[in-house]
Amino acid sequence: MKSSTSDFLTDVQTVNIVIKQIGPNKSLPAFKRIVERCSRQRVIQVSDNPRRLFHCSFIQSSSYTEFSELQQHRRVFAVIGVGFTNGQGEPADKSTRASRESTDSEVSESEQISNAYNKLKSDYSNIICSRCIIIGGKDEEFDLIERHERLCFPSLEDATQLESAVRELMRAIYIVIEMKRVDVSFEKKQEIPCPILPDESRWQVGVDTKSTKSYRKKCLGRCRKQHADYCLLTGLPQLALEAYEGAIESLKSAQDHLWLAAAYDGWASTVCILHAEQMGEINCGAFHRVASMHAMLTIPSIEINTQTGDSLSVSNDSVLRYPSGNKEEMKLQSDFSSPQGHKRHHSDEHVRVTSSMSNGIERNESFGNESGIVSNGSSPSIREEPTKVKASKGLNPLSNFLSDRREKPTKERVMENFKNSIDEFSKFTMAGWLEYETVMRGIMYLILEREYIKLEQFHRDYTGKYLDDSNTFMDHRMKSQICLNSAAMYREIGFLRKQAFYARLSVLFELHVTEGRVRQASDYKIVYPVLFKTLEGYGVELGEPHDIKNKKLGPVKLQIKSLHEIFTAANRAGHRDAAIRHLCFLLQVYYPHLDSSMTTRLFEDLDNLVKATNLVHQLNQTIVVDDGKIIIPGLQLTRFPIIQSPTVLALQSNLAPTIVPNKCQASIFIYTPFAKKADNALLWVTDCPGEVEVTVKNCRGSELVVKDLCLIVEGVNFEPVQARLILPPEDEENQSGSTIRLLGVPRESGDLFITGYSCNIFGLHNECRFFSSNGQKPNKIRVKVLPKLARVYLECSLPRAPIEEDNDEPSAEAVVYSGQNFDHTITVVNNSDIPVRYCGVKIWQPIVQGGPPLICLDDLETHSQEIEGCETTDDLSSFTLEPNGSKELQFHIFGIDPTSTADDLSDEEKVLESVVPLATTHAIPNPDSESNDMDLIPFTGRLLTAEFIVRYHSDITTEDGNSFERKCKLPIAISIIPAVTVSAWHVLPGDSPFSRYIVVDVTNSTEHDAELVYSNSRRMYVLPKETCRVPILSPCCSDVTGGAFHQAKQRGSHMMQKMETERLRLILENHVSKHLDIRWSIPALNLDGQVPVGSLLSSVSLLKQLVLPAISLDFFVNGKQYVSEDDVTVGIGQFVTVEVSIISSLAAEYNGILSLECEQEISHLLGSNDTSSFMLVTGAKKIPFTVDKENKQSATFNLAFIVEGSFRVRPQITPAPGQNALLAEDMFATPVAFSVSTKF
């Protein structure tokens, strides 16, 4: 069969040359190469003016040669035998090898080749000339073959003159045919020879009388018919057209119906050839003239413009002829595909040839051709892909090429002659195939004219009868071939859906079972390629990425049926891998459209196929079937299971590296918020496990087992870790699937690209790519892998204990009482063979603004010379580590007050209440008032966490000088049990204006008695769950002026205000902490410690009262110094002498006016109001004063109360003109409390 419908048209101008292997040695690959090289010399130019082309076709067998007199293009004009000597070929099988060994002593190898060649010539007795190509033999060893016929070459590579010899053979054939063409003597002879067909007398009706005029017209018409054939074969279609017209006139008069049918067919075919040449549909390409014999010929190709605008370029391939029933001629049949256009070819190129054994009863080797078209009784030749070339832009009128003739051929006349030929052929049963070829040539003409509607009608009217059950002349195999031809016709005009329909119909005829015969695997091997090529017609694309979502499937039910048929054919043909691939594709793409029963059956079939396969099927590999004619691309089985949303996770916190840029190199600063993220966004380290998080979902209704699930990467050496999953059946509750992590270890540095995953599912090896969110572009995730780095871990003398569920680092815990101090050690260990050139230690812990911290390192080392270039900010200690070295550090834990610790816990863990209620005294600070003073008292809590953070740099640098930093941590959970803590505080005047009493309420939270030691040797006992008041005398701090905090609030920004306030607080904390030392001990528990006073030292409101004020006032009541807050009891109207001593710490002199104010406290919550009217002052109510740093001044007031109650008398200083007003913190004065009653 030809490669397209155009071959039916070109057949009529092509000379047939049979080429076969001969001799005892066979070499199919070498024979294929010889056939291919010969096929390239298919067209030669034999004349310039007019331009004439001579076409030849190299075939391996022929059929319908009994009609060679009727149609000369069916005749075999020459034969070529190809023999291989010992060493160049191998015996075909064991029997041949044994026969050869037994006859070596009797007949030489050269004689066997010579005898086989002579037998080949005798099989085709009517040939013009022949050639024998001998590979590996010497010329003198083959004397039995004529000298001009043998072509001996040492090897196929040395056969450089093969093409030239083939062209010489073609030239010789042309000369003979040309001599027959120019011989028109029959026109003048009285007795015209009458060409007849073999056994013509059997079907001829009546007896011809040679003397009659009708017989003479019959002979003349037949001779003219043969002369027209010679004209067409020698490249003169114009002359052939005239000769066919003359033959038609004579044969019509003689009523010679069979030859008249052939003449009609020849005339119409010639018109089609001329029309196609002028339209550019037949492109002969480059070719050689007879005189030039040094360059290769290219093969003429034919362009068929389809309805879609694309052009299909097909060539006049060498093909197998349709079997005639002769068993000897049907033993070896192959098809060849020839190169197209202007491609350059090499003599050693491999040509696809398929050889198989068949006989006329059991098999038709032509079945399974891609285009499905058979002409001249030939077998199919499958063309893998049509070559697309430029189509002609317009259609030329049919009459242009015959403008010099009187009667111009029209479309109607051409089709009329085709129909006349079909009608005449239909009168002869034995010419049924010739009739069908005429139908196909008429179809070819309608394709050229783009008359697709008429083509459809013509095809339906004239081919339907061949497929009818009443047609007994054609068996089911011939009917199958007719369907294939129809499929190829629809393919060329772009009707792929109908092409698929006729291809499937041909399969039905091919699989028709006659009596006494059972379908074999070989039958399904024939039909499988045909069914496979119907997928395109139904819109099934095997090569595209099979996305589950947003895929337009087309006619789903029809596609499922077609795929299932292909799977069945592949399975029964023994193509087990192809059957598995088709079944997996069906499940992958059409699973949602399958019912449960069919799904169950398909999975059972898949399981049976996998069990019957010895090797694990690789879904990602391409499958080649039928000697490369069918290529099944790899499949990504992404539906079982569905794995989506790949996310690359960073390494564990103790392994995650960061790139530290080299600060020594000067560079231009360009601000961009993406620079640092790009460098450190996703970094893995060699020999450190990496993780990729994916979502896995089972869409089946049963349990799904996934084995050997691992990542697929590119770029660097990577060792994936395989996982095994057992996924539960799909249910409505778990629609989102499960999240898992896939592990792997990179083994070298560089750019790692994570492209997909592989697994073993249903016993198949499956490799899939990750796709982007839209499912189109493959999602290739890039991860930068750093070289192998040092690894450091921490060891501690504290006991280990897990703190968090997902904490991958070691952790420790400790239990202390508030105020206790414990010493421990921590060891920094380098367990790698890479040195650490910098290792810095810092501690993250709850922020305590006052008092000792929770954890403190004992020894702080100086940075060594090797690490001066590294950043050491916030590092408490730094050092280097040798490979497998370690460093031990000492630290101690102090039990801070658990009721007033810093920000450590979450909101749910914060303890918002104190251990015991605060004492209801006036010394309780007001939170509202202290908020304006930026008080730093934090919230309270009992369970605290801290971390040792060690960051280290491996002694590895990049070409840019950058280094790699890692961090390791040791979390410590510290449980602090309240022992003796501070519950409240108050500041009272001291024994002088330059000292203060800090009165602290200390609470014993234990169940045992506690002993307190304060002010060096003073002791006090506290009962369990009781509170006692401890007075501690502290001198005022002269390093901070009275208005310093006010000046701090005047700074330009809030941050500057906080920084200045913190600086002043630290100065006061260092001063006060020297005196605020309270030790406790609990003998029953054998415990001792220090009362934590961090809450006091962090209170700005307390520390501000310990600043030496600008003006201090000292009161004397009735000559006795007032040093406490105890009330002075007086009666109504009783006069009291109050002396006020004014002391200044200012360097300059200060002038002011002193007066007294009286206030009465209503309640603790409502505050007090001014009651100066209830106090009677005798003498001066306002006394001016002048004080300086060296001198102090006194003022005396006599006062009495006229109302009963509790009153407080406060001093009021009014600055003199020219003096600045005093702030509240610039003046310290303890108000005098009076209790007025009616009794004295």
UniProtKB/TrEMBL annotation:
<dbReference type="Pfam" id="PF26251">
    <property type="entry name" value="TPR_TRAPPC9-Trs120"/>
</dbReference>
<dbReference type="InterPro" id="IPR013935">
    <property type="entry name" value="Trs120_TRAPPC9"/>
</dbReference>
<dbReference type="InterPro" id="IPR058563">
    <property type="entry name" value="Trs120_TRAPPC9_N"/>
</dbReference>
<feature type="domain" description="Trs120/TRAPPC9 TPR region">
    <location>
        <begin position="474"/>
        <end position="614"/>
    </location>
</feature>
<feature type="region of interest" description="Disordered">
    <location>
        <begin position="88"/>
        <end position="110"/>
    </location>
</feature>
<feature type="region of interest" description="Disordered">
    <location>
        <begin position="330"/>
        <end position="407"/>
    </location>
</feature>
<feature type="compositionally biased region" description="Basic and acidic residues">
    <location>
        <begin position="91"/>
        <end position="103"/>
    </location>
</feature>
<dbReference type="GO" id="GO:0005802">
    <property type="term" value="C:trans-Golgi network"/>
</dbReference>
<keyword id="KW-0333">Golgi apparatus</keyword>
<dbReference type="Pfam" id="PF26254">
    <property type="entry name" value="Ig_TRAPPC9-Trs120_1st"/>
</dbReference>
<dbReference type="InterPro" id="IPR058564">
    <property type="entry name" value="TPR_TRAPPC9_Trs120"/>
</dbReference>
<dbReference type="Pfam" id="PF08626">
    <property type="entry name" value="TRAPPC9-Trs120"/>
</dbReference>
<feature type="domain" description="Trs120/TRAPPC9 first Ig-like">
    <location>
        <begin position="669"/>
        <end position="771"/>
    </location>
</feature>
<dbReference type="InterPro" id="IPR058565">
    <property type="entry name" value="Ig_TRAPPC9_Trs120_1st"/>
</dbReference>
<protein>
    <submittedName>
        <fullName>Trafficking protein particle complex subunit 9</fullName>
    </submittedName>
</protein>
<feature type="domain" description="Trs120/TRAPPC9 N-terminal">
    <location>
        <begin position="206"/>
        <end position="276"/>
    </location>
</feature>
<feature type="compositionally biased region" description="Polar residues">
    <location>
        <begin position="353"/>
        <end position="381"/>
    </location>
</feature>
<comment type="similarity">
    <text>Belongs to the NIBP family.</text>
</comment>
